[in-house]
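Entry details:
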Amino acid sequence: MPWIPIPITVTLKAWFLSSYGTGPYSYVPLATQIGIDYVLAAAAVNTGYGGIPPLSVGTALGIQEGFELSFAEIEKWSADSVTWEPFDTPREWNQEIPDYVWKDAAQSIVNYWAGGIMSPLPPPPPGAIGTNPIISGGTLMPLQADIGKAFKLNNTSALCNALNDAFVKHLKTVTGTWTGVTGSVPPVPFVFPWVGLS
């Protein structure tokens, strides 16, 4: 099964709409929800040759912590950069948030996959028995920029869709190597590098 967009495009959107303006301001619940929804969306990803879901990857808490750090960085940037101006010259300050503030959020997604293990079954042809470690958790900088673009959108639905697109695009940069033997007699060592999850 592939990436499941519903937790990001529907559940996260519903969370935004139901939580807006309720209670004291805190970015922790949003970071928590992003972590939970990412894990749910990623639960069934597989390699390009098939396979069942990941056997071992990161946690929702790891993603939550990364987004918390980025939201804290935005607060720091806002305190240093946002100034009050006359009403006749309004500015949308969220459009000026630099991409560097999203480094921790993006790194938490990369870390979620880094060092993980995908299922070795089914194996890539002609493999039979093996292991399937993730070698790289994907590229950081494009994901960082794409998360930044998503949060510059002034529409909840568009933000969630763009965040989902950023996560799906990032999956294409995750790499691993299936290593094992073929089903032939005698078995022959077989290594199959792969790029991208879907």
Remarks:
- The helical segments are 6-19, 28-42, 60-81, 103-113, 140-151, 156-171.
